[in-house]
Automatic annotation (TrEMBL), chain A:
Residues 216-262 are annotated as: Disordered. Keywords: Membrane, Signal, Transmembrane, Transmembrane helix. It is found in: Membrane. The lineage of its organism: Eukaryota, Metazoa, Chordata, Craniata, Vertebrata. One of its GO terms (molecular function) is carbohydrate binding. It comes from Cyprinus carpio carpio. The keyword DNA-binding does not apply. Residues 216-231 have a biased composition (Low complexity). Belongs to the EMC7 family. This is Endoplasmic reticulum membrane protein complex subunit 7. Its main location: membrane. The keyword Metal-binding does not apply. Component of the ER membrane protein complex (EMC).
From TrEMBL, chain B:
The keyword Ribonucleoprotein does not apply. GO terms for cellular component: EMC complex. This is ER membrane protein complex subunit 1. Keywords: Endoplasmic reticulum, Glycoprotein, Membrane, Signal, Transmembrane, Transmembrane helix. It is a single-pass type I membrane protein. Residues 783-988 form the ER membrane protein complex subunit 1 C-terminal domain. It comes from the Eukaryota. GO terms for biological process: protein folding in endoplasmic reticulum. It comes from Cyprinus carpio carpio.
Length: 262, 989
């Protein structure tokens, strides 16, 4: 029993000396690696780095959060930090800054104060990918809070399906009459045939034709007073243009007579 | 591969649901105000003449640097909540500020220009004691470590040697330590003698190589211990008889070259004691009567001295406060105390030093609404000419209670000064001569307890238009005439508006300011601008314009207990013109439970003249009924601890209506100490009867939170269309209560969180869920047919979201009306859980006018960001395997981890510190939800959960559209002309 007591006393004394040595190293300035045992409370240390940015530009808005706001630390002017009074356990250490993004790190502290840092993995929580300790947390750049506005460009405009749908037929309209000689009688015959194919029932009045006739009558009446009798001929070709745009922009006088003969 | 598919699906769905901020929208409809809290320490940087720094430490554990010219923050550091982050002392020397935090746990030195930490030291004296005693005697030592565990902070002081401040000394209950100012390293630490009997309270150093520690044994004697700075050796220790002494802190101070001065109310005397002379062991008593002074009865007199430089002894002048409004400036000369100037009446007095000159500023009442502050030279008590500052007291505010003076030397070597006045209602006012208010900070807003958003009233014309629809027909012709006249009024208003626009356009831009005042307040066309009524913990009410953040009215309610419970109820909105809107605030004392009502107009902040029922018994529950009285005010029922009901307003009309509807009015009460939930029904005579009772045994679990659904919430669709075109109907029970319990056993293997969904009318438990190996704090949202809650999974050490959705099934039981009493089928409950890769501070859901817009969850994070998370991600029907039907339904495949994207942070870099609550309110636009986040800061913004589908977008390209239109127009004109020419030519051919 006596021996037990003595052992206990020696143990306590050793423990105390241990604490003393730690405390003295704590008091020393400079980067003291490792943890300082304060009772059963420990210290998480590390350094945050934002490449290319001076520390004084961002440290005043940044904080170190351990497991939410359970433990809070602040950054020193050289970018290093220490969070005091953390009991043993496993914690997610995060540097929060409104301007820069830092990846969180999980720090495990054993009951003896041994520290280990690893990547945070919420799905496989036991997976260990070691990170350096004392922590070296490098910023991965500024936050991207904003969505990009859709800017208007010519390529967007041209690649728009609606525009494509409009432009392609236009090209056909312009180019086709140039390629195909419409004055060739054989060709004309062929076209007439295809026209008849399109209009399977010649007796049935074409709706568009009917409409154009209706409107051209009205408009010719109103414009007739202004322009006199001569304006009748142009009006006719006008109707032609609207009713059969597919035949080509270049209006053929023969085709006009054809329509009216029908 | 499957993972890739999931990713793809998520990214595709994001295209539809993203509600992000665009960079050009910054500050367009959002604003943030930052606060610090009640100032406990404030120090002006007197180091250089041009410095604008004002260092403050507050009761919210905030240490900040303010710009004294504008009142804005240079930087701010927010420490942990609670006693561990409590700032005990703030000292400043040169560019550095030394802060003692956490009841003497940490000593920090801050670089004040940058706002970064210079060094940080743990003041771990408890452990160090042990090693001191190890050398002496071991057995005693073990006992000591236990007994010295309590080392609470007492005082801290800067210590100078030979005109140069090098150290900081920290006094704790049983130890004193000295630290180097440049590195924070500990020079020495000493155990205080007899610390178990003597209460050591203050510390003093006069720059002569010694540190004095003062302790007191109440009603017995004072102990003075003298330490040598170099090595902490005790030079001298003496105890002086002082039977009248109970506490040193407020009644004693050191003046002149080391003279301890104390004041005592009972003996009506001043006491002086030479510190350094060995011969004087008796304290000298000076009766106040000999100075023709008297301490007001019941008032603890206060001594205020000043030590301009810590390396030099303090001045021999000091203030003695004899009553709340009586100060006197006294001087100690050749061992005699002589009054220099008597300030009667005077509210506040403070010393300030600039260079070699020390002045005293005294605030005295001028008239009922104003105070005057004057400057006096400290050594003579003479008044400085032309130094009066008039301070106008806010009639709706509190009395001034702290005065901070910033003195500076002017070019002509006279002393100029600025003052910062703190009032009871936590307003900080910074004034300069001759009384110009430089800035005002309303620090009560750092602690918002509850808030409401109230619609703004209509203007006269708008009201006229509204009135037209309100009245029923007087015949066709008058109605037509009325219509025409109101249209004419509108036209007139529009013309006036145009004229104003034109008029303003000619003026330079800077002079055109849209000042919002209480008189120009009116509802905008989309009802986006509202009045934010905020209730703060200090008992000050604010009315804030939601568009600009301007405080439009404020009202300080006096005699509010520090931790009262507030409940704000909107009884009448602005919709009932000409009746003014009406808000009722129930203030409940936390200890006694007694409450009282404060009725006011939320737009103007004026107290209403309506008579308020007296509440003699503690209020247990309040209930806002949809029943309205003849003045369109909703009826508020207050239930007291004898289950008696008081109605407010309680007119005959209301009582009649209550009697008619009494059988359908139910309410519930929660007693979390007994784990009892009980439901009551109202009787015709306004008594109540118990209908149901649910007991949740308190040995196992305790009720931590209970929430119903929001009354102003609309659900647009009754069900969800499934992939096979059938409809899954929602279980929309308006009486459903969500009850959250936590286990009393906190062991991580056995702790759990319980969720009960209880019908508030019948007491039927609709659903019950237990989340094992989980603990709180639980944040949850209960809305529509779903409930989302967040808990901490203690096994995997992560936060998890869980969603519960209730469905009736493919058929509705009663599609016309919902009755809790007639529900034969229990609802189908679907649940799914997800990992949330971040801690959470608060949770709320968006709310829109008609509930058509998809919902988002607003998650407040400890980093200060607010995440807008689409509810789509929290859908228990998210399939694990993608099928044709689920794709048709637009369901995102299940993924365990919830994504957090920075684009979803609705407040970008405008972080809200210590976010405590988020308030959401619908606007007039269906797409838009107004959001106010409050905590230490206040942030207001608008969110568009389904994008802005009902208004043109901000980036709507007017230029492109109009240029295309004009282009087409001209193209047709030109081509028409060309065609005509061509035809003409052809006709001639």
């Amino acid at each position: 029993m006596q021996q037990m007591k003595r052992l206990l006393v020696v143990y306590v004394a050793l423990q105390a000396l241990f604490a003393l040595s730690w405390c003295f190293s704590d008091a020393e300035p400079g980067p003291a690696a490792g943890s300082q045992s304060n009772g059963d409370r420990f210290k998480i240390e590390g350094r945050a780095i934002v490449p290319g940015v001076k520390t004084q530009d961002w440290i005043s808005t940044a904080r170190i959060l351990v497991e939410g706001e359970e433990y809070v630390g602040f950054l020193k002017t050289d970018g290093s930090f220490a969070v005091n009074d953390v009991p043993s356990g496993s914690y997610v250490v995060e540097i929060v800054s409104p301007s820069f993004r830092f990846d969180p790190v999980r720090v495990d502290i054993t009951s003896k104060g041994k520290m280990r840092a690893r990547l945070v993995n919420y799905i496989k929580t036991s997976e260990v990918i070691r990170q350096p300790y004392p922590l070296q947390i490098r910023s991965s750049g500024p936050h991207t809070y904003f969505m990009k506005r859709e800017t208007w460009g010519w390529t967007d405009f041209l690649m728009n399906p609606m525009v494509m749908m409009m432009v392609l037929p236009l090209l056909i309209i312009v180019l086709l009459p140039k390629v195909v000689n419409t004055n060739d009688p054989e060709m004309r015959k062929e076209m007439e045939q295809s026209m008849n194919m399109l209009n399977p029932n010649p007796e049935l009045p074409d709706v568009s034709e009917f409409m154009t006739k209706l409107f051209s009558k009205g408009s010719s009446k109103s414009s007739g007073g202004n322009k006199g009798s001569r304006s009748v001929a142009p009006k006719r070709s006008d109707t032609m243009c609207t009713s059969r745009p597919a035949q080509g922009g270049d209006v053929d006088p023969n085709s006009v007579s054809y329509t009216y003969l029908k | 591969m499957a993972w890739l598919v999931v990713r793809l699906a998520i990214s595709v769905s994001l295209l539809y649901t993203a509600s992000a901020v665009f960079e050009d929208q910054v500050g367009k409809f959002d604003w943030r105000q930052q606060f610090i809290g009640k100032v406990r320490f404030a120090l002006f940087d007197t180091h250089s003449q041009a410095s604008k720094k004002l260092l403050v430490a507050t009761d919210k554990n905030v240490f900040a640097s303010l710009n004294s010219r504008t009142g804005d923050l240079f930087w701010r550091h927010v420490d942990k909540i609670g006693p561990e982050g409590h700032i005990d002392a703030l000292l400043m020397y040169g560019q550095d500020a030394v802060v003692v935090t956490g009841n003497g746990r940490l000593l920090r030195s801050w670089e004040t220009t940058v706002g970064g930490l210079k060094w940080e030291t743990v003041l771990d004296t408890g452990r160090l004691f042990m090693l001191f005693c190890v050398n002496i005697r071991i057995n005693w030592c073990i006992k000591l470590t236990v007994s010295t565990f309590d080392h609470s902070f007492q005082a801290a002081a800067l210590v100078g040697v030979q005109d140069f401040v090098k150290y900081v000394a920290v006094l704790k209950k049983s130890a004193i330590s000295l630290h180097d100012l440049s590195s924070g390293s500990q020079i020495w630490v000493e155990n205080l003698p007899d610390s178990d009997t003597v209460q050591y309270q203050t510390i003093y150093s006069g720059g002569n190589g010694l540190v004095f520690v003062f302790g007191v044994v109440p009603n017995s004697h004072i102990v003075i211990v003298e330490y040598k700075i170099e090595d902490g050796e005790i030079m001298r220790k003496k105890s002086v008889e002082a039977a009248w002494m109970s506490s040193l802190e407020s009644s004693c101070t050191v003046i002149s070259s080391g003279i301890l001065l104390c004041v005592d109310q009972i003996t009506q005397s001043l006491y002086t004691l030479q510190l350094q002379s060995a011969e004087q062991t008796e304290i000298r008593q000076i009766h106040l009567q000999t100075l023709d002074l008297e301490v007001a009865s019941g008032f603890q007199p206060v001594l205020t001295s000043t030590q301009p430089n810590p390396a030099q002894p303090p001045l021999s002048e000091f203030f003695l406060q004899l009553s709340p409004d009586h100060h006197i400036l006294l001087q100690l000369k050749d061992g005699l105390i002589a009054p220099l100037r008597d300030f009667n009446p005077s509210y506040l007095a403070a010393f300030a030093t600039s260079g070699e000159r020390t002045v005293a500023a005294v605030m005295s009442p001028k008239n009922d609404t104003a105070c005057s502050i004057n400057l006096f030279s400290a050594d003579t008590g003479r008044r400085h000419l032309d130094t009066t500052i008039i301070y106008h007291m806010d009639p709706n505010g509190g009395k001034p209670n702290r005065l901070y003076v910033h003195a500076f030397l002017k070019k002509d070597d006279s002393v100029g000064y600025r003052v910062m006045v703190q009032t009871e209602d936590l307003t900080l006012t910074f004034l300069q001569q001759p009384g110009r208010v430089v800035w005002v900070r309303e620090e009560a807003l750092a602690d918002v307890v509850t808030m409401e958003m109230v619609d703004l009233p209509f203007t006269g014309t708008q009201a006229e238009l509204e009135g037209e629809f309100g009245k029923k027909a007087d015949g066709l012709l008058p109605m037509v005439l009325k219509r025409l006249s109101s249209q004419f009024i509108l036209l007139q208003a529009w013309l006036a508006h145009l004229w104003k626009l034109f008029y303003d356009a000619r003026k330079p831009r800077s002079s055109v300011k849209n000042e919002v005042t209480i008189d120009t307040l009116s509802r905008d066309e989309f009802n986006l601008q509202k009045m934010m009524v905020m209730v703060t913990a200090s008992g000050k009410l604010f009315g804030i314009d939601s568009k600009s953040g301007t405080i439009l009215w404020k009202q300080y309610l006096e005699n509010i207990q520090p931790d009262s419970v507030f409940k704000l109820i909107v009884q009448r909105t602005t919709a009932h013109f000409p009746h003014p809107p009406q808000c009722t605030l129930l203030i409940k004392n936390k200890d006694t439970g007694l409450g009282n009502l404060y009725v006011f107009n939320p737009i103007f902040g004026k107290k209403s003249q309506i008579s308020v029922p007296a509440l003699p018994r503690p209020v247990l529950q309040t209930l806002l009924l949809p029943v309205i009285d003849q003045d369109y005010a909703k009826v508020l029922l207050l239930i007291d601890d004898q289950y008696k009901v008081t109605a407010f307003p309680s007119t005959k009309n209301v009582l009649q209506q209550l009697q008619d509807t009494a059988s359908s009015i139910f309410f519930y009460l929660v007693d979390s100490s007994q784990g009892k939930l009980s439901g009551f029904r109202l009787r015709k005579d306004l008594s109540t009867e118990l209908i149901w009772e649910v007991v949740i045994p308190t040995e196992v679990q305790k009720i931590v939170a209970i929430k119903g659904k929001r009354a102003n919430e609309h659900v647009h669709s009754q069900g969800r269309v499934m992939g096979d075109r059938s409809v899954l109907y929602k279980y929309l029970n308006p009486n459903l209560l969500a009850v959250i319990t936590e286990s009393t056993d906190t062991h991580q293997e056995r702790s759990f969180v319980g969720i009960f969904l209880i019908d508030g009318v019948t007491g039927r438990i609709v659903h019950e869920a237990v989340q094992r190996k989980a603990r709180g704090p639980v944040h949850f949202v209960h809305s529509e047919n779903w409930m989302v809650y967040v808990y901490w999974n203690s096994k995997f050490r992560r936060n998890e979201f869980s969603v519960l959705e209730l469905f009736e099934g493919a058929e509705l039981y009663n599609s016309t009306v919902f009755s809790s009493l007639d529900r034969p089928h229990p609802p189908q409950v679907l649940q799914q859980s997800y990992i949330f890769p971040a801690p959470i501070s608060t949770l709320e859901a968006t709310l829109t006018e008609k509930g058509i817009t998809s919902r988002h969850l607003l998650v407040g994070l400890p980093s200060g960001n607010i995440l807008s998370l689409p509810k789509m991600f929290l859908d228990p029907r998210r399939p694990e395997v993608v099928s044709e039907q689920s794709r048709e339904e637009n369901l995102i495949p299940y993924a365990p981890e919830m994504p957090i994207r920075e684009e979803w942070f609705i407040n970008y870099n405008q972080t809200v510190s210590r976010i405590r609550g988020i308030h959401t309110a619908p606007s007039g636009l269906e797409s838009t939800c107004l959001v106010v986040a409050y905590g230490l800061d206040i942030y207001q913004t608008r969110v568009f959960p389904s994008k802005q589908f009902d208004v043109l977008k901000d980036d709507y390209d007017y230029v492109l559209i109009s240029s295309v239109l004009f282009g087409l127009f001209f193209a047709t004109m030109i081509s028409k002309r060309l065609a005509e020419v061509k035809l003409l030519n052809r006709a001639w051919r």
